[in-house]
């Protein structure tokens, strides 16, 4: 089973959520940069991000923590691109980002295989370039 199949099942085959998550990933400059942005937050955010990458259970992130880490401008850009309300977008991302990152780091780390999988998934989903 491929990455998109796994992510699709995990996110109830909601292509919109997948596109949004891949847009945020792209906008951040890749998986490492997204994780780095998120880890610059408070201790709770750092713990949450660490749990997503590790092989254990995934901690949740709050909407305010997510907004602080990603930045209002970035969130507004994705909201504009998708036509979603800002708060709805933030809520969906906060709810689904832990599982998304967990799937992109199945062995507990970011590696070259993760990058190839992300690129293939973005092309297949036709994720708009931001």
From TrEMBL:
It comes from the Bacteria. Pfam families: YidB. SUPFAM superfamilies: YidB-like. This is DUF937 domain-containing protein. The gene is yidB.
């Amino acid at each position: 089973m491929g990455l998109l199949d796994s992510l699709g099942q995990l996110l109830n085959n909601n292509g919109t959520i997948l596109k949004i998550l891949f847009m945020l990933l792209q906008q951040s400059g890749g998986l490492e940069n997204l994780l780095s942005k998120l880890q610059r937050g408070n201790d709770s955010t750092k713990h949450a991000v660490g749990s997503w990458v590790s092989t254990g259970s995934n901690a949740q992130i709050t909407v305010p923590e997510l907004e602080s880490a990603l930045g209002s401008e970035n969130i507004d850009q994705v909201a504009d691109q998708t036509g979603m309300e800002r708060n709805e977008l933030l809520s969906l991302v906060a709810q689904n980002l832990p599982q998304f990152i967990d799937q992109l780091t199945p062995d507990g780390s970011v590696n070259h295989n993760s990058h190839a999988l992300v690129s293939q998934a973005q092309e297949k989903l036709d994720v708009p370039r931001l």
